[in-house]
Amino acid sequence: MTIGKKINIPKIEDYRGNLSVIEKEILPFSFKRVYYLYDVPAGAERGGHAHIEQKEFLIALSGSFEVVLNNINEEETVLLNKPFEGLLINNGVWRELKNFSSGAVCLVIASDIFKEEDYIRDFNDYRDKIITGKL
Fold it and tell me: What 8-state DSSP symbol labels residue 125?
């Protein structure tokens, strides 16, 4: 895996159930926003954008889904299906989330608050910014 990086989240096992904790030492960025995706209909896709500055960490809290990462030079698909493992996506990487299982919940920890101007929502614009060195 070269575009995204999987990071293990500490898991505390107990006969009463497991517990995982994300503290500031786990992620290579400070986070300002946490949100989650759920009830994604069969066949629907999420993402379909890149961020200019924002970094994100995605976790499948329940179920599974695939994250397709693209940086123009390479593309990789990462399966997320463990609540104690997340995917770090740096800024400047195109992402698409798809193949959500029934009941899947995707937690996203983001380095910044929502700013529309940080999004690149058209793949051709993204490709042009990469090729011209503007991203």
Answer: H
39 close to 61: Cβ distance less than 8 angstroms: no
Instruction: Tell me the pTM.
Output: 0.94
The pair of three-digit structure tokens given for residue 73, joined into one six-digit string: 């030079």
In this structure, are residues 61 and 27 in contact, taking their beta carbons and an 8 Å threshold? Answer: no
| CA-based nearest residue to 4, from 46, 81, 45, 56 | 56
Asked if residue 1 has pLDDT above 70, the reply is: no
How far, in Å, CA of 4 to CA of 135, rounded? 17
Instruction: Provide the pLDDT confidence category of residue 24 given band limits of 50, 70 and 90.
Output: confident
For the question of residue 49 being annotated catalytic, the response is yes
Sign of CA dihedral 98, 101, 104, 107: negative
Domains of the chain with CATH codes: 5-131 (2.60.120.10)
pLDDT digits (tens, 9 = 90+) for 90-135: 999 999 999 999 999 999 999 999 999 999 999 999 999 999 999 9
Q: Which residues pair with 6 in a beta bridge?
A: 87
Task: Tell me which of 11, 49, 98, 127 is the catalytic residue.
Answer: 49
